[in-house]
Amino acid sequence: MSMSSENDAKLRTLSAFLKIYPSSRLDEEGLTIYLLMLADVSAAELSVVMQKIARHSKFFPAVSEILDTVKQLRQLINPAGRIPSADEAWYEVMSQIQQAYPYKQPSFSTPEIRKAVHYIGWSMICETPAGDMSIVRAHFRDIYQNMLQRGKDEQETRAILAALPAGKKGDIVRRALAAKTM
Asked: DSSP alpha helices (H): ranges in 19-165?
């Protein structure tokens, strides 16, 4: 199997960091799986992320820990792509109540906030008595977090599909469509 220079660089990074985690049992086959799972991560990102993780972790990181740290790195580099926390999203909703109330169209920074507000109902949020607002806030938080999780799941699926060879991707998509029609 020939390895791209990008994958070769990632393999060198992972192998080098194995040396500082002597209790790790990750072998060549395990490293191959790491490469597959980190297909949408650049060698440069992996190097920076592994350095960050090594500073505080006693054990070789799981793929999920690497991916979470890559996400943090990308958000630091590109703050415009940052997803607001549930509290920040709620603050945005409260600001729009003051600016738009039920008579104007509210404007939100992300589709997830817009969808969460839509599910509850903009006029219902605006007209909720102050004493009941904590209930609406909790409901909004749950819906918003579900929206974020759904978006994260879809993004991960797209990244995995993008990393597949073209023929395999087509097979998987055809099977998924066939399963939906049953």
From this structure: 28-37, 43-54, 63-77, 86-100, 111-120, 122-127, 133-163
The answer on pLDDT for 35 being more than 80 is yes
Choose between 167 and 119: higher pLDDT: 119
Cβ pair 128, 136 in contact under 8 A: yes
Cβ pair 113, 93 in contact under 8 A? yes
Alpha-carbon distance values, 54 to 31, 48, 57, 80 (Å) = 17, 10, 5, 28
Angstrom distance (rounded) from CA 125 to CA 164: 44
CA angle 71, 72, 74 (to 5 degrees): 65
The two tokens of residue 119 are 């599910």
pTM of the model: 0.66
